[in-house]
Design goal:
homodimer, alpha+beta, Hypothetical Oxidoreductase Yiak, Chain: A, domain 1, Ribosomal Protein S8, Chain: A, domain 1, 2 domains, 15 helices
Chain lengths: 370, 370
């Protein structure tokens, strides 16, 4: 991403090369492309940034969004990739998000920094708050970054991973989303898919990172089954009457279920309280009401905790990094167990060399936006 | 528990009243009691404290342990109640724990306090660190208490609940335990049952609290099925060859499974890293090795995070407490969903009035200790 500005220069050339596509007003005039399109990560960056800028998103907002979208495509997470551009732009067009918002940071004290995203997107707010968070965590060992009034549409690992990889901190992040998930034993949506992410720095290698929805599955998984005409397993969702269902459409119209039964519900309550009520921003049920049917990225907050392991050690001869590596070695001895993030890192190794492929339909729709 | 010292005075009377039991050297001389014994919570306190003191546990260590044991019996959690006295005393007798340990507190900085439990028990270490934690959280909004080198044998809710109820703070606590749990996809024990607890203060009522093992079930649940000769459900454990089993004995000899599949494993990794590696204390696999077959309460650390919601608010008219209560109201509208801790609180209301009943066998064994 460091060459973000250079990519601007490449943008004209790439878009010009694809002008034949862009000038086609409708796909009736020629056969639709069927073959997936191969793009380098630099191409993705240029395309993404250009589309955002063309639709009134400021430089300040557009670069951080671009970074998260490129990171998602790079890591094989297409669901958080280019596809999300339609949501970002729809949100700006509907006036839900302010594409030119100027986030404002507040230094609350030795352990808390706060950013008001001013109805802009979370990545720019994170970028503004990150240096404060890192400084406080390094100085005092533990610090929180509160993000408020942000439209949240990117994966949390994209925030916690650099805190570990570049700043040497462990980090936890969580946020509400939109009320789609019933509590264990209940039947109506109340919580969001409420993700939680964690990162741990590993000297000389990529950090340990996880990021998962506290619902049984991401909502997109159910949507994919619906499109494919396939049933969903029991335990993913209830229908509108509160009965278990294997029909994805019924599950989308009803309520998703938490992961891990009542323990998942307990964690969802914690996330809604700490990253909603406590920071005086929307919980998932409020985010849904504010969205008012627009289907835009939800407006809510986020809480990030950062830990500098150096402050937590007890002066024992074996430091925290060495101890952690001993745990990872034991983990690696377990055939069949997969460390979270290894799949993303494998994809990254490949895409950095080979680029990514984008489905023809998606690419055509993106070019319409460009 | 505030009347702990008064209870000392009651102790003599109660033990004298039961002298007939204590003077019986073996149950061959008279028929074994069959009827459960009813005790007031004051009786439980006196009995517990007396037993600990008689077995070389210092006042400093004995009162905090007594408080957690009485709280467990009061809340209907017999598995963390009087039964645990045998473990505490066994640990002191084996020389694993120091029953007269003097914990030492260190003020690490504005956001971190640390207590070296000096191989004593966790409750005394928590008591020493708690005022530091509360002061830092109130002053700066966010603070951590690190406990190191403690023998941990009590439930975490007993620590986070008073932080919410008495100090008005939200709190998260977690710790490793003993390696009994395989990672998802793996087959050998690596993680502990690694509990996580959370509390949220509720004005005018008891706090919201949860506390659960990140294994599929607590180890005691499997032990109970084994004693009852009942099978365990699939998903609780693997046998020693790594195959799913419904045989509780095979599961205890093999590996427990995490709750929530790979997401539970991710959380277990986080707990081991933050409350083990980061604080430079034992992870669950190390605690098992240090125990060396003694079966004593494990020696490891604990991490407690405390949040003062007043520092996290955004100055919006609706404060965090009011927002949280709106969430709890919505939750209460869901028929069938149960808020964590309601069962404990219901038991408490009953036992404070009526006392508890103790199985005859357990009571007889306790009197032998007294």
């Amino acid at each position: 991403m460091g060459d973000g500005r250079n990519a601007l220069a490449r943008q004209g050339a790439i878009l010009a090369a694809r002008a034949d596509n862009r000038n086609v007003p409708s796909n009736r005039r020629r056969p639709a492309m069927k073959e997936p399109v191969r793009l380098s990560l630099a191409d993705v960056e240029t395309l993404c940034h250009g589309i955002l800028r063309r639709h009134g998103v400021s430089e300040r907002q557009a670069w951080p969004i671009t970074r998260t979208i490129v990171a998602a495509e790079r890591d094989g997470c297409a669901s958080h990739g280019l596809y999300r551009l339609f949501g970002y732009i729809r949100s700006v067009q509907l006036g839900k998000s302010d594409g030119a918002a100027e986030p404002v940071a507040t230094d609350v004290g030795p352990a808390i920094a706060s950013v008001d995203a001013a109805r802009g997107f979370a990545p720019a707010a994170f970028d503004l708050g990150r240096p404060l968070l890192v400084d406080k965590a390094r100085r005092n060992g533990l610090a929180a970054l509160v993000i408020r009034h942000s439209h949240h549409f990117s994966a949390l690992w994209a925030e916690v991973e650099p805190l570990a990889a570049e700043d040497g901190l462990a980090a936890i992040a969580f946020c509400p989303s939109i009320s789609w998930v019933a509590p264990a034993g209940g039947s109506k949506p109340l919580f969001g898919t409420d993700p939680v992410a964690f990162s741990w720095p590993r000297p000389g290698q990529l950090p340990f990172v996880f990021d998962f929805a506290t619902s049984a599955v991401a909502r997109g998984e159910i949507e994919l089954r619906r499109r494919a005409g396939e049933p969903i397993p029991e335990g993913w969702a209830l229908d509108a009457d509160g009965n278990p269902t294997t029909d994805p459409a019924a599950g989308l119209a009803g309520a998703q279920l938490p992961f891990g039964g009542h323990k998942g519900t307990a964690l969802q309550l914690m996330i809604e309280l700490l990253a909603g009520a406590m920071i005086e921003d929307a919980m998932s049920f409020e985010a849904l009401e504010m969205d008012d049917g627009a289907g835009a990225p939800p407006l809510h907050g986020e809480l990030i905790l950062a830990f500098d392991p150096a402050h937590f050690g007890g002066g024992s001869p074996q430091n925290s990094a060495a101890r952690a590596e001993a745990l990872f070695r034991r983990f690696a001895e377990q055939d069949g167990a997969r460390l979270p993030s290894t799949r993303r890192y494998a994809a990254r190794e490949r895409t950095v060399r080979e680029g990514i492929t984008v489905p023809a339909d998606l690419y055509r729709d993106l070019l319409k936006l460009a």
